Amino acid sequence: MGGVNKAQWRLSLVDPPGVGNGKPRHGYEPLASVWHGEEDAELLEKLIRFYPRKRPRLILDATVNGGRFWRGSQRRVVGLDIERRHEPTIAGDNSAMPFRQNVFDVIVYDPPHIPNQGRDKSKDFNVRFGLGGRSPKECDYSFAHTYPSFLAEAWRVLKPEGLLLCKIADYVHNHRYQWAHIDLIQAARAIGFCPCDCIVKVRKGPIVDPKWKHAHHSRRQHCYWLVFRKSDRCE
Ligand SMILES: C[S@@+](CC[C@H](N)C(=O)[O-])C[C@H]1O[C@@H](n2cnc3c(N)ncnc32)[C@H](O)[C@@H]1O
């Protein structure tokens, strides 16, 4: 780690080698728990600088899609996606990953969204870019049943003390609030991950579905970035 002690890493007093000029920053830079910026890529870079104890060398995006999270990034990222048409680095299933154990420093996960049922623009967006998916009634219209098998694989291929960064949104479906972020935290805990932090990412306005003009649920105006560590301690 060449002259940089563990405490400095943890406090982000210096840029990780290869990022920035390697000189100590002036003071500690806190990370706020609410993010109002537009781009996930910008926030993700902040997370990757803030949380790791060691400079992350190899990153896996386990649901890479078109790679929007890595636009403009110099990071070494392996992109995995089950859909070949997105042209990932490797086409494959994140519940049976084609990697050896303990190879990645960071894994990023952004599971499919349940598309809004109305004819709104976000639904078109989800369909057009393959971001959304369908979950049948027997799975309670949720993707929570896919979390355990992904998480078991993420645990296997992540190095000890490695980070798992997940973007996840709750939603209302079938007249019920779907607690996706709680489902994910519970599933991750069951595998052994330490849930370490939660960033709320706020969008400009709430998603309004024209089909549900008088829904008696608050309109979702945020999602979460959850931070897990393959460790028994957060910091
Ligand atoms: C919400 S999108 C990810 C969007 C991406 N983060 C971005 O900003 O461009 C979810 C992606 O997960 C992929 N996916 C769904 N199930 C998967 C699986 N079992 N293994 C790997 N990829 C999967 C989908 O094909 C889709 O591209």
Q: How many DSSP helices? A: 5
Rg, rounded, reads 18 Å
Provide the list of bound ligands, each named once: S-adenosylmethionine
Secondary structure: helix percent: 10-25%
User: Within the largest sheet, what's the order of strands?
Assistant: 1-9-10-6-5-2-3-4
Largest sheet properties: 8 strands, mixed
Please give the alpha-carbon distance between the first and last residues. 18 Å
Mean pLDDT: 83
Please name the CATH architecture: 3-Layer(aba) Sandwich
What letter string, H or E per element, gives the SSE order?
A: HEHEEEEHHEEEHEE
Shape: globular
Low-confidence stretches: 1-25, 117-125
Q: DSSP strand (E) fraction? A: 15-25%
Provide the CATH topology.
Rossmann fold
Structural class: alpha/beta
Describe it.
- 20% of the residues lie in helices and 22% in strands.
- An eight-stranded mixed beta sheet has the order 1-9-10-6-5-2-3-4. Strands 7-8 form a two-stranded antiparallel ribbon.
- α4 packs across α5 (180-191).
- It has one domain: Rossmann fold (3-Layer(aba) Sandwich), CATH 3.40.50.150.
- The two termini are 18 Å apart.
- The protein is built from five helices and ten strands.
- It is an alpha/beta fold and 235 residues long.
- The model is unreliable at 1-25 and 117-125 (pLDDT under 50).
- It binds S-adenosylmethionine (SAM).
- S-adenosylmethionine binds next to β3.
- S-adenosylmethionine is lined by residues 63, 65-66, 68-69, 80-83, 86, 93-95, 110, 112-113, 130-131.
